[in-house]
């Protein structure tokens, strides 16, 4: 059996006198040099960590904690070694529980599983209801129930994430059993097979969460989840796209709330919403992902008033659509993103969709085109921002280097839904990098990220620059002069460039999922 306890090695001089022990920090530096990086695939990472665990007990503890700190329990049948290993751990824990309840002694593998269980802090259930054949669903349900029963035995779990997984009785019972340690619950696109029973609602009401994420996403089936089921009064983080849950949440003050993320809001809600924000005086992070404009076909788009009476004295991070900029931006904000979108339900596409008698739980989103003047220099002049995320056309129309001399991180998006973009074949990387030149010098900027696509796939490969030597020369010749303090340059998502100093050589990092694609070019 593995023993996860260790003592610092004893050091002696040749005359056998004791020497001071080597600090644990030195061992950790050695471990950090050897541990897997972003360029390592999950299977390679597990192999490396498994080998490190065999070196000594000190390395064993850190390797096992890396491998099992976060469990990924997937219902997909083609998952890799990481998920399979995590499912195997749950199998041993469930088997050990059966042995213990019947008075049978645990074998070594079950004892080891109990020791490893003490390292687990987070657990994700994902894809337990996807594209499986109907005949396999009973088997998937059985394994889901088994894993939920096993996770109940994990003594230090603080976060549970459910993605595309039905909210079944065993999962609710699991959350209830973990209530003494569970602080974060994330629910993303999870159907509710049947209405909650009184017992299930009572169990969920016992959870004392500090963080809740609840997104129904693209679910088309009715989701009968009463908003008063969960205890929400002491939340520090709240994220949702549910109007019903949002309305219930804002009925009372939330003095501890620090992070708020909302999606699918209507523009008509904004006056009351901003008024209610004053009941969250500790708010530091506000994100509004999409605002929908409801109007008749002949009306002009409404203008958003500035809510001057809103006091958010602690707000530091703000992510909103451009039309809310005048309403929200305050002097305390240091990180600003205007990559949120605005939808217009009276656009021709939405009207034709409704006229055809096609109905959906979610309205058809249409994204009206914005111009470069949707954000003006005046809106950014008085800000002391250190981080800015904006659509690329805005960057070309505003002298950001003059308006924001304190900027340290800049993210430019080529894929914002409210802007028209040229065809993919027109995205030429030399032209993109050269277009960033001639816009003045950013003396403090240390990180630049270019977001070119919503999600990279093989179809974009022909539009990418794969000549790394040429790209390095472009960075050195153009970006290094405009951004003299630049340390990180990311061409999302394939290449990450970094250097250790102002005059150091640029080195590239290729995330493991793109290595095969790069090597095939």
UniProtKB/TrEMBL annotation:
Protein's name according to its UniProt entry: RING-type domain-containing protein
Gene3D superfamilies, per database record: Ribonuclease Inhibitor
């Amino acid at each position: 059996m593995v023993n996860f306890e260790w003592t610092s090695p004893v050091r002696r001089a040749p005359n056998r006198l004791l020497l001071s022990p080597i600090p644990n920090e030195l061992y950790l530096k050695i471990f950090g040099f050897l541990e897997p990086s972003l360029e390592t695939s999950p299977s390679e990472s597990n192999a490396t960590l498994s080998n490190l665990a065999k070196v000594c007990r000190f390395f064993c503890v850190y390797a096992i904690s890396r491998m099992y700190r976060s469990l990924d329990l997937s219902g997909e049948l083609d998952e890799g070694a990481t998920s399979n290993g995590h499912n195997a751990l749950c199998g041993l824990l469930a088997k050990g529980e059966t042995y213990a309840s019947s008075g049978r002694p645990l074998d070594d593998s079950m004892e080891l599983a109990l020791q490893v269980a003490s390292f687990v802090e987070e657990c994700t259930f994902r894809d337990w209801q996807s594209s499986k054949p109907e005949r396999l669903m009973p088997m998937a349900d059985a394994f889901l129930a088994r894993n939920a029963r096993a996770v109940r035995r994990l003594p230090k779990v603080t976060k549970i994430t459910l993605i595309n997984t039905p909210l079944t009785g065993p999962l609710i019972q699991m959350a209830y059993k973990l209530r003494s340690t569970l602080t974060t619950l994330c629910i993303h696109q999870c159907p509710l097979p049947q209405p909650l029973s009184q017992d299930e609602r009572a169990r969920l009401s016992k959870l004392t969460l500090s963080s809740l994420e609840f997104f129904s996403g693209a679910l088309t089936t009715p989701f009968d989840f009463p908003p008063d089921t969960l205890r929400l009064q002491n939340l520090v983080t709240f994220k949702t796209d549910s109007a019903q849950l949002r309305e219930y949440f804002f009925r009372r003050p939330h003095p501890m709330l620090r992070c708020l993320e909302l999606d699918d809001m209507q523009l008509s809600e904004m006056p009351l919403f901003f008024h209610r924000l004053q009941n969250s005086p500790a708010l530091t992070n506000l994100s509004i992902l999409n605002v929908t404009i409801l109007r008749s076909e002949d009306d002009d788009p409404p203008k958003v008033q500035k809510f001057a009476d809103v006091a958010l004295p602690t707000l530091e991070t703000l992510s909103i659509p451009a039309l809310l900029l005048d309403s929200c931006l305050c002097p305390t904000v240091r990180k600003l993103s205007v990559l949120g979108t605005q939808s217009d339900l009276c656009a021709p596409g939405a009207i034709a969709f409704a006229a055809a008698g096609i109905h959906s739980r979610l309205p058809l989103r249409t994204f009206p085109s914005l111009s470069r003047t949707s954000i003006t220099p005046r809106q950014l002049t008085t800000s002391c921002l250190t981080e800015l995320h904006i659509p690329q056309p805005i960057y070309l129309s505003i002298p950001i280097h003059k308006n924001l001399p304190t900027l340290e991180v800049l993210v430019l998006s080529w894929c914002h839904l409210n802007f028209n973009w040229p065809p993919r074949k027109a995205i030429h990387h030399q032209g993109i990098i050269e277009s960033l030149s001639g816009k003045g010098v950013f003396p403090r900027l240390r990180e630049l990220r270019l977001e070119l696509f919503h999600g990279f796939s093989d179809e974009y490969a022909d539009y990418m620059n794969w000549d790394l030597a040429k790209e390095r020369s472009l960075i050195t010749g153009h970006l290094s002069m405009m951004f003299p303090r630049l340390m990180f340059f990311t061409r999302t998502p394939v290449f990450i460039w970094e250097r250790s100093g102002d005059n150091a050589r640029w080195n590239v990092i290729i995330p493991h999922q793109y290595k095969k694609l790069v090597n095939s070019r």
